[in-house]
Amino acid sequence: METPKKIHIYHYERGVGELIAEILSRRNYVAEYIPISREVAFGSIAEEIATKNPDLVFLALNFGSAVGAGTRFQEGLEELARIKARSQVPVVMVTAGGTSYREEALRKGANEYLTFPFNVNELVSLVDKLTISQQH
Known about the structure:
Elements: E1 6-11, H1 14-25, E2 30-35, H2 44-52, E3 56-60, H3 73-86, E4 91-95, H4 102-107, E5 112-115, H5 120-132
Parallel strand pairs: 1-2, 1-3, 3-4, 4-5
Helix pairs in contact: 2-3
């Protein structure tokens, strides 16, 4: 039997992170919601991913007010660049802000760009595709 794929969901909004984790857990993925908060040092997500080695990562494009005032949409893109510099893990950027940053996220290494609200079946198909494509 194949080992279930580990998926980390990094989001500042508990409802979104827990929803994604719940949907994927019901589909036999090991999905963990990890809140982005003021206690999470900016830049530490990439280090955690390199250490824990998940099979797939969902990352908020906008860290909201979780890390304080700032560029808002740039925090997720900067973290994406750090992740891609340290790991080959597929990353799906998540936002409710529409598609205005889609091209930039894909250019910086995001494998996909998911807007909230999303279709559950599309979410599961996306995860299946990204986790199967990395098997040897």
